[in-house]
Design goal:
Largest sheet: 8 strands, mixed
CATH architecture of the largest domain: Alpha-Beta Complex
Helix content: 25-40%
Number of helices: 8
CATH superfamily of the largest domain: Nucleoside Triphosphate Pyrophosphohydrolase
Structural class: alpha+beta
CATH topology of the largest domain: Nucleoside Triphosphate Pyrophosphohydrolase
Number of strands: 17
CATH class of the largest domain: Alpha Beta
Shape: globular
Strand content: 25-35%
Order of helices and strands: EHEEHEEEHHEEEEEHEEHEEEEHH
């Protein structure tokens, strides 16, 4: 059996149990000459050389089938292994250590407790799905899926925490839905879930078994930059495959700035990031319009829409986007009245754009943007 030294997120006992697939005995150990810091790139642990320090952790010796599960999980993050001499109460032993490829420490000690509070539930849920893929896909395929998989897990956690009221709609909890079978036949840029289920009916009792399918997606955010002094808005335009697939002769679509909410981000943080990426615009005060499902009959996508106060002088238009994501995004700055005219002409074709423009128009009439 291989000895493995754990110093980071797998010190969380629940995550360790999910990844290993069993309770494996763990003993305290430390790695001399190293310390565990928060990565400069985000909230994950990274080993940093430090004479006189010792990275505290646990030593495990899982059977081969359980060690293979851990290899699969760590390979999903492209973590690499190295041999290290670790100290235990019984003496010094050689153990395998999983380390992030490259990166630097932040100079701040990494906190397991802080990580558990901020990222523990999402990471455990994502790990459950990851290990369900063990033996079915290789490490390269897992690395491709890992980002969207973790983003979906983050959305699931958020859905359970931010619950809309049930004053008009039925007070029927999801636990009363009976799942007969569920499959995920497609998983690439997003996933498709197919489920056989029964659910409570308004007449009482349960429905007959039925099959439902939907695009399984992470939460998204939209934002329209608005300049209240010049009464201008910024829209973006890009090629949209959905419009192309429908047969639209002109599949370049006008929209608000939009993007997926990454794990650990708030919707507002994601909106600010996307505004910089897609339009090179910095946003000041943010006004939340609403949170809503884009089409719950066919997709799990939940959107938070915002208006962001921005300075939009002449010459604010640009072509931008993240090159590695093949984004080719053109921005348009126009008066609010000209943007509202797009509703009448039919050139405004997406729900978030229609909603956002109408909200800005109403907010202006209500004095929402007036100086305090």
């Amino acid at each position: 059996m291989t000895r493995i030294f754990l110093f980071g997120t797998l010190l969380d006992p629940d995550l360790r149990r999910i990844v290993l697939g069993a309770e494996i005995e763990a003993t305290p150990a430390h790695l001399p000459g190293w310390r565990v810091e928060r990565s400069a790139q985000g909230d994950w642990p990274i080993l940093v050389r430090s004479d006189g320090d010792a990275a505290q952790g646990l030593l495990i010796q899982p059977p081969s089938e359980h060690a293979a599960r851990m290899d699969f999980y760590e390979n999903g993050f492209d973590f690499q292994t190295a041999e290290a001499e670790v100290e235990t109460d019984a003496g010094r032993v050689t153990a395998r250590v999983y380390r992030a490829p490259g990166g630097a420490g932040s100079g701040t000690e990494w906190s397991l407790a802080d990580w558990q509070a901020a990222h523990g539930p999402m990471t455990r849920l994502a790990a459950t799905e990851v290990l369900g893929l063990h033996g079915r896909i290789d490490a390269e395929a897992l690395r491709f899926r890992m980002g969207t998989l973790r983003a979906r897990a983050s959305s699931t956690i958020r859905a359970g925490r931010e619950v809309a009221p049930t004053m008009l709609r039925a007070d029927i909890h999801r636990d009363r839905v009976e799942v007969i079978d569920q499959q995920v036949p497609y998983h690439h840029f997003f996933a498709v879930a197919e489920t056989q289920l029964r659910h409570p009916t308004f007449a009482g009792g349960m429905s007959a078994p039925m099959e439902r399918a939907a695009f399984w997606m992470s939460d998204a955010v939209t934002v329209i930059p608005f300049d209240p002094v010049r009464r201008r808005v910024l829209l973006v335009e890009q090629f949209r495959y959905g419009a192309y697939l429908r047969g639209d002769p002109y599949p370049w679509i006008l929209e608000p700035i939009a993007g997926r909410i990454d794990p650990g981000e708030t919707p507002e943080t994601a909106a600010r990031r996307e505004a910089l990426e897609e339009a090179r615009v910095e946003l000041a005060a943010m006004h939340r319009i609403a949170g809503y499902y884009s089409g719950p009959g066919a997709t799990s996508e939940f959107i938070d829409s915002y208006v962001g106060i921005a300075d939009l002088p002449d010459g604010s238009e640009t072509v931008a986007g993240v090159e590695g994501e093949h984004e080719d995004i053109r921005s348009h700055v126009l008066t609010l009245d000209a943007a509202l005219d797009l509703i009448d002409t039919g050139e405004a074709q997406t729900g978030p754009l229609l909603l956002s423009l109408l909200w800005v128009d109403r907010a202006l009439r209500r004095g929402t943007f007036d100086p305090a």
